[in-house]
Amino acid sequence: MAFYEHVVISRQDISPQQAEALNDTLKALIEEGGGTVAKIEYWGLRNLTYRVKKNRKGHYSLLGIDAPAAAVKEMERQLSINEDVLRFMTVRVEELDMELSPVLARRDRGDRPERGDRPERGDRPEREDRASFDDTAIEG
């Protein structure tokens, strides 16, 4: 069996529970085909870069799959006829990464300063004086 990473984007109109139910349906399809789903990450409702089927947002999910190609092909066939799915992409990988994806790792990271911790406008260092620019080099 081969390893795959599968990302699916579903319509913004559905609820997060319906997006999770779609993930469970995909897991059942893979298990029927003789494979396993090693991890499922729901990334939430995110903005799309451009409109897809008149949607500006979509529910993103990532699945780590260990399955035969026939099971993945059947899952993709089912997704192509599902009206709630905007886009999906399956990529074959050498090994499954069981750590949090960068999308969720960035969300969980708490080392960013809060908005109130930024320096005030008056506390910032001044820029160099622009009058020291040498105008003679431009005359030509």
Q: Overall mean pLDDT score?
A: 84
**Topology as a string of helices (H) and strands (E):** EHEEHEHH
**Helicity level:** 25-40%
* Fraction in beta strands: 35-45%
Helical segment tally?
Answer: 4
Q: Indicate the low-confidence ranges by residue numbers.
A: none
**Biggest beta sheet summary:** 4 strands, antiparallel
Spatial arrangement of strands, main beta sheet: 2-3-1-4
Structural class: alpha+beta
How many extended strands? Answer: 4
Q: Over the alpha carbons, how many angstroms does the gyration radius reach?
A: 23 Å
* Basic shape: globular
**N-to-C terminal Cα separation, in Å?**
69 Å
Oligomer state of the chains in this structure: single chain
Structure description:
- With about 140 residues, this protein is an alpha+beta fold.
- It has four helices and four strands; from the N terminus they run E-H-E-E-H-E-H-H.
- It has a four-stranded antiparallel beta sheet, with helices on one face.
- Strand 2 and strand 3 form a beta hairpin.
- Helix 1 runs antiparallel to helix 2.
- The radius of gyration is 23 Å and the shape is globular.
- The mean pLDDT is about 85.
